[in-house]
Amino acid sequence: MGKKEAFARIKINKLLEEAGWRFFDDKNGQANISLETNTKMKENHIDNLGENFEKTKNGFVDFLLNDDRGFPICVLEAKKEDLHSLVGKEQARRYAKSLNVRFVILSNGNLHYFWDLEKGSPVIITKFPTLESLGTFKKYKPSPETLINEVVEDNYIAITEMPTYMKDPDWLADGEIRDDFNKRNNLRFLRKYQIKAVKSIQETVKEGKDRFLFEMATGTGKTLTSAAVIKLFLKTGNASRVLFLVDRIELENQAKEDFYTYLKNNYVTVVYKENKDDWKKADIVVTTIQSLMFNNKYKNLFSPTDFDLVISDEAHRSLGGNSRAVFEYFVGYKLGLTATPKDYLKNIKEINDRDPREIERRQLMDTYTTFGCKSGDPTFRYSLVDGVKEGYLINPIVVDARTEITTKLLSDKGYSVMGIDDEGNNIEKLFSHKDFEKKFFSEETNAIFCKTFMENALRDPISGEIGKTIIFCVSQNHATKVTQILNEFADKIYPNKYNSDFAVQVTSVISEAQQYTKNFKHNGLLGTSTFIEGYKTSKARICVTVGMMTTGYDCQDLLNICLLRPIFSPSDFVQIKGRGTRTYTYYYKDVHREELKKNKERFKLFDFFGNCEYFEDKYDYDEVIELPKEITGKLKSEPTTYDKGSFENFSPDPLIMLHETQVGYEGMKIDRKLYEKFEDEMKNDDFVRRNYEEKNYEAIEDYIKTEIFEKPNEYLNLQKLQKALNLDRRLTLREVIAKIFGDITEFKSKDQLLEEEFQKFISIYKPENNIVSMKNLFKAYITDGDIRNKIDNKRFRDFVVNPKISLDEIKELNVKENNNAEPWIKVIPNYIKDYVKINTFLI
């Protein structure tokens, strides 16, 4: 055991107190913990236990956790650190049953299990449940048989009983009439494959499993299918509350609106907001994984038993890395949704750790492992090919377009530029496609991209104007340039039709960007069409973005998707391409009340950076455009300008004084005052406050970096703020923003953050032995570069004398456990390299 480790009793007492349990009466209420009869209780302390339960028989002690009426609700079986947490399992079961208690906690201070005696086996937890959570969980009476036997048909979501006329074979056979009726009455019927998905869960539960993975192509209705699954669990009593995790802020309200549409007659859905208890009254809680991860909010706000079913949308992304800790924290059923098939990487044979495809592979394999699908077969699969075959999805027309420059950028050699170095020698500088709009800038190339798109884009089948489009750019600045070029083209081609409303930048720095995405979806972005009066389609035809609108964005009438950037993640490529695969019927009723309907039969995917070629060895391109080598009608561009007030000095400025003073670790008073002043200014800054309310943290960070930091007088930066706050590790701008607006009450120390990171690791890998040694290695590897070097180079003998971790502990961890492919001495460093930001723990 490490010298700095607290004993088991101290750790268990602290965990109980953190969860709101009380040994003694205090201002919060009466004591609700009682101990075995041979343990003496004295005011404000406990006798006859010792620091590590060394004075108790066999090292065991029973804590009884009681409800508000004094009745036992949970048995806590505690033991010494050198005993496994599960050693007292059967003893605890007997004791709990003798008291008619349903719940058991097993702990040795380092590893903790929660056991619902009515449900299954003990599961690892990283925080003790609260009394309130256990009280709610006690009312939850799972019945797998009820879930398995529930009848699920196509009207499971729409209505309880279909009217007689809807059962008529002629009515059912006329798909257009039926679909029109459903749409007008806001009804949603499950498709055959969606019913199969729900039934696959029933079959899996029958096998005794509690984890499920749906692999469904974009556009096949994962949210509707999820609604059916949620209803299945809530209706049959196998869940009392559901947590639905998304990976983007803009998807929170979209998911809420969808669940409200599908389940409003039976269940309450809320989006979780800080400092509100409305989630306690809800059946379905929607929130982002990032929100719960920040500052370990999921542990601070929820108990492990608060949700009985947890669903992760875009699981391959939202549960990547240590985000899985959130998922593993809760003890209920788990469902993952993904649109990215594992076999998408089937042709990749040799990849190194620096290749982005290796990261993708790890994410996908982590996803399959998390949901008990190590074989690579999900609980249910419905692919893009399946959807296209059955008429639910549309494949793209791929437009592979390359300019002279991009062709060279994409070549093995790259694009060559000759220059002269400081010594007057001729030098060659090479750029690749990764450098576009980052190191290599070309207005001419951007113009030809836009011109090619304008000349070849699919048109709206009703109005004839360019169809609704999403364009994906490299950066915010790139998006700004492209938006301007497109609007200039539109002014020339369609005079007085758009007035710079043709293309709109929709990125995180744009105020109300999230609302723009909704307006675009509902055909009201910057008004409606000026081509045909009364036709419901957006006046703005193009949204130019970077990372928004990639996953989960449902805009069915999209006709064009344009890639003005290279993409390196297969899942990103699949998601972006999937924005256009949905079917749609364009509808218009003219002044004479005559109806016009046109079905969306295709969409175009403009690819200017060979992304399709990158991801697929062979691809049958439906359309390839040969680009002109020259552009006619050169477009104007904004000249490069310098910030006002800048000054370049050419006069000598000799040093006339040099005096050194060592400032102590506590910093100077002026530094501390500097932070207070900065905090006040940010609280009163309209831009910062407005974007904080919209959860647009990226825009706030960009604003502070460009408009606040490194300005004359104070030359403020993160390092100065860190020094002013006397922190023993690096500060992040996201933390500063959270502290200013009360999301967090304090900046955590290095050791607090290390403990939190280790708990995430524990919840994901669930080790059973050598926890203390693992923690010592985990902390030492992160904080000590010399130890990292020794571990990475397998210089284990150097640990014969080491104050942080001993050779004996190294030996303990150099063995395989839990069916791991590798020993902990390798697993821990790899985990840290992949998922822990080591720089955060440095000064």
Structure characteristics:
6-stranded mixed β-sheet; 31 helices; 5 domains; disordered N terminus; 36% helix; alpha/beta; tt1808, chain A; 7-stranded parallel β-sheet; globular; 25 strands; 843 residues; Rossmann fold
Q: What is shown here, in short?
A:
Helices cover 36% and strands 14% of the residues. With 843 residues, it is α/β, with parallel strands linked by helices.
CATH-assigned fold name of the largest domain:
Rossmann fold
Considering the protein shown, what is the CATH homologous superfamily of the largest domain? P-loop containing nucleotide triphosphate hydrolases
Tell me the β content: 5-15%
Distance between the termini: 28 Å
Q: What is the helix fraction of residues, given as a range?
A: 25-40%
Q: How large is the radius of gyration? A: 30 Å
Q: Average pLDDT value? A: 77
Care to count the β-strands? Answer: 25
CATH class of the largest domain: Alpha Beta
Strand line-up of the largest beta sheet: 11-12-10-13-14-9-15
In the CATH hierarchy, the architecture of the largest domain is 3-Layer(aba) Sandwich
What structural category characterises the helix and strand content? alpha/beta
Summed up, the domain count is 5
Question: Quaternary state, please?
Answer: single chain
Largest sheet: number of strands, sense, barrel closure: 7 strands, parallel
Query: What is the overall silhouette?
Result: globular
- Helical stretch count? 31
